[in-house]
Amino acid sequence: MKFYLFVFALYFFISGSAQQNATVFSENKTNGATLYASNKGFCPSTVVLELNLSNMTFSMGEQKTFVIPAGTEKMLLGEIGPTDPKKRFGFSYKYQSVIGDATLTGYDSSYVYDLPFEKGQKFKLTQGYNGTSTHQNQNALDFTMPEHTLVVAARDGVVMKVVDNNNASCPNESCLKFNNVITIYHSDGTFADYAHIQYNGSKVRPGDKVKKGMVIAYSGNTGWSSGPHLHFAVFFLQNNHPTSIETRFRIGDGKKVTMLIEKEFYSKDY
């Protein structure tokens, strides 16, 4: 007797800065099915399959993790067919989908970022990496700056996410849900978050390609914030979870490269 069991249980892991995920779907064939994935997003996505096979085999063997390139409509993942077609067989599957390439083992640690504000400006770094306030166990930076200050891209990339419809703020975690943020994907697989931007303050949309130094938003005081500032953090996927990383910047006239230090002022003259 032949028996097919198709159960489509979808599990998405979405980081705080993710927007579009890949999806997995199947097409029936004689004595089995073919699994495909699509990714309508603007950067690669990773899917992890969990197969439950009864008298069936998967053509890709033990491979269960697949990276789906951006803009993919239909990528073959593998074929599922019966081990013994004379006996009862069936299958079900689940999958996780996460933005980015979760198979990366590293990133371009030598890359030097530009300060995320315009030439001629100078701001204080009020909180640095692993700060004692809201950056505990987090490699993120807070620049104190007046609301409506122009924010520029610190690195070339593609805009993945834009949230700028919030206008509330408070100095505790309950207001995290009101964070306005722009997330940009970089060529080495990392992402950058520019957070607390002004209500309706984004100058870009998802899918836009940005160049370093391009204006992307106005700074603000939204979300989990005790005062006007720009929160900047770079992260990449590590074991399917976002891991923030330390970054170096050009400061002053652009000839000096350094890791930024909390409580110091930094100017941009390039």
Give an overview in words.
With 270 residues, the protein is an all-beta fold. It is built from no helices and 25 strands. Residues 1-18 have low confidence and may be disordered.
Number of strands: 25
Ends distance: 74 Å
Strand content: over 45%
Low-confidence stretches: 1-18
Q: If you compute it from the alpha carbons, what radius of gyration comes out, rounded to the nearest whole angstrom?
A: 22 Å
CATH architecture of the largest domain: Distorted Sandwich
Summarize the biggest pleated sheet.
9 strands, antiparallel
CATH class membership of the largest domain: Mainly Beta
Average residue pLDDT: 90
SSE sequence, one letter per element: EEEEEEEEEEEEEEEEEEEEEEEEE
Shape: elongated
Q: What share of residues is helical?
A: under 10%
Number of helical elements: 0
Multimer state: single chain
> How many domains?
2
CATH homologous superfamily title of the largest domain: Glucose Permease (Domain IIA)
Helix and strand content put the structural class at: mainly beta
Query: What would the CATH topology of the largest domain be?
Result: Glucose Permease (Domain IIA)
Short summary of the structure?
This protein is mainly beta and about 270 residues long. The protein has no helices and 25 strands. It folds into two domains: about 10-100, Immunoglobulin-like, CATH 2.60.40; about 110-265, Distorted Sandwich (Glucose Permease (Domain IIA)), CATH 2.70.70.10.
